[in-house]
Sequence to fold (419 residues):
Amino acid sequence: MSEIMKADLVVGIQWGDEGKGKIVDSMASAYDVVVRYQGGHNAGHTIVVDGKKIALHLIPSGILYADCKNVIGNGVVVNPEALLKEMKQFEALEGRLFVSDKAHMILPYHEMLDQAREKLMEERAIGTTGKGIGPAYSDKISRNGIRMGELRDIPKLVEKIMEYQEAHAYLSDIYGVKLLGREEITERMSDYAKRLLPFIVDTTKLLWDAMDRGQRILLEGAQGSMLDIDHGTYPFVTSSTTTASGACSGTGLAPKHIGEVVGIAKAYCTRVGNGPFPTEDFGSEGNLLREKGKEFGTTTGRPRRCGWFDAIAVRHACRLNGCENLALMKLDVLDGFPEVKVCVAYLYEGKEIDYIPYDCEGVTPVYKSFAGWDHSEGIREFDALPKSAKEYVLEIEKITGARVSIISTGPDRKDTIRR
Fold:
């Protein structure tokens, strides 16, 4: 038996949308297996290769490398329709794409329930994507979920879904959710089984076997650490564990088998949906960040809330994840700003603090300002960056305690500085 390799991990350090897809894509050529371990098709990764944009929502970012195996782990909730649609972008996926038989399925009533609840909550809404993620995870935790492996026995699966719907018939009255009939359920599940069963396997065993053979594994998360169900800005969070610890439960790998953790952060901050966002800029600079950064959701198209780099939140997330290295994305978006800012502390209940409090709604950011720079776009050597841009990066290192080992200066995979 070969020496067991440790799996490396890429994790978002802000509120999601940090640019994980580009980093995983750039790293994947050195790995045999790339694994997605949590979330659903509410997440989106955009990769640009030779000017062509590729949007991924469930399929891991290693799919662009022919020799790389791509795994959707048991911690992911899978919408079969969304997965099949995404698979159409690629050819010859058998033997390259694997879906955990323990991953839970998002069914039509999950989506309808998600959207109905958000509508009823009005101004108290979480701001979800309406993709059914929360209700699917709720069913998983309450032990009412449907797993992908159940597609192997359609009659039994149909009976289980019908029993669930009968027990939850009140949803139709409360939320106006239209539940599917037996015939339509049977037709859909049979179609899913026919098209997806060749890809459904025990992915935990697949990963253990890969480790035993000495193969290199890269784990990729969705969303960001500040949206973690336990450690994020609750209740304005996602429904899964987005931090590094979720990689173990979402794949079946042991903590001792996790290697390097690379955190991904933008050179500024964005957030989608409602909830606390201390450094949000409501003025012209926030609008300019959105315009220059093309900050619209990959999955929903919604405009993202934009603001300055929050070093307090990033330092907090680095500690949560055991992250010693950062990839700083979209530095080029800050080109042309006369001044750029970093949040170095919060004002909270009349005091200056340097940590994340229980109630982030009540904080005011304390900024440190830096001179702007004219041009960093496309630069691929750290020494070639403008002096003020280098100072900005080094200050981020100092405050967060993590080394900025990768800097992205453009959307293409080649526009990357490695230190």
About this structure: The mean pLDDT is 92. The chain is about 30% helix and 20% strand.
